[in-house]
């Protein structure tokens, strides 16, 4: 009989001192065998201290790298420390740790290399604004077309990854708003991606980092990246 | 009424070809990952605007008319090109400023880390 897989939760956090302690406590209460690494992305508040006090491994970035750089730091940490499975969730408390089994399940069962928790499969409680909805729909359509696989939530940061996916993202991960491109990358590298429905909570503290003006720039950048990505030769790891 | 000056066809062709080359070079730089998308957007917008203005002679003539450019409409191309170059340079100045700030922080962190290691290694 093989030993239990080593699992770790990767939690990127930028100035989340109010929420991070609760997130870590919930994770550890839900699954005591789950290690937690908090990547404090150049936080100017006490995020790192609070996380350490709650028993998480803390990686402190010397300045703000943005979500892509922060999350990749976590992937590198997990990959270099030999974890079998990683789950990535946000430090603001919007990802509910009690939903962990849904996201981790297919990865632990060996049915998928990466699992993305989607707000749009079967959950009627999430009601985004109209502009946001349009953006989400457009990205879902573009990614589904490129991937030739239906995806609904391309910007979800609630994900579980096995060693293969961890190795890919540790080596190469997009920078600014990485989830969309990350999805396309996994599919182009022939990794098995699966979406599962999850319920997400309202943010407990702070505001989302994506504002209205930024989201236009974001869409332009992401669509450009996806378009250019089509002309890149994909490397299929042996 | 005085007839407004027109963009010569040869000028239009040459300018279109040059701006198309710019767009293609930028595209290839992004593709080969030598240019990040966030910096490439400005260049792509520059290139695209120049392609449109160069190829669409009627538009260039009209726009030149708006700005009171009567003698030589392609002068608008220079103006637009120059404006974008200034914006790109300004953008780079902010990028370089941020990079040097971060470089200082990295150097300090590294030096502090190194001193911690040496203090551990050579106990007196």
Overall average pLDDT of chain B: 87
Q: Give the overall shape of chain A.
A: globular
Percentage of residues assigned to helices of chain A = 40-55%
CATH topological fold name of chain A:
Spore Coat Polysaccharide Biosynthesis Protein SpsA, Chain A
Q: What are the secondary-structure elements of chain A, in order, as H or E?
A: EHEHEHEHEHEHHEH
Q: What gyration radius of chain A follows from the Cα positions, in whole Å?
A: 17 Å
Describe this structure in words.
The complex is a heterodimer of chains A (238) and B (124). With 238 residues, chain A is of the alpha/beta class. Chain A has eight helices and seven strands. In chain A, strands 3-2-1-4-6-5-7 form a seven-stranded mixed beta sheet, with helices on both faces. The relative contact order of chain A is 0.16. By secondary structure, chain B is mainly α. Chain B has one domain (9-121). In chain B, helix 1 runs antiparallel to helix 2 and helix 2 runs antiparallel to helix 4 (75-121). Chain B is elongated and about 80 Å long. The mean pLDDT of chain B is 87. The interface between A and B is medium-sized, with 12 and 14 residues.
Write the layout of secondary structure elements.
The complex is a heterodimer of chains A (238) and B (124).
Chain A: E1 7-13, H1 20-30, E2 34-41, H2 47-53, E3 57-61, H3 66-80, E4 85-88, H4 100-108, E5 114-118, H5 130-147, E6 159-162, H6 163-171, H7 178-188, E7 193-197, H8 212-229
Parallel strand pairs in A: 1-2, 1-4, 2-3, 5-7
Antiparallel strand pairs in A: 4-6, 5-6
Helix pairs in contact in A: 3-6, 5-7
Chain B: H1 9-31, H2 37-55, H3 57-66, H4 75-121
Name some characteristics of this structure:
heterodimer, A: 238 residues, alpha/beta, Spore Coat Polysaccharide Biosynthesis Protein SpsA, Chain A, seven-stranded mixed sheet, 8 helices, globular, B: 124 residues, mainly alpha, elongated
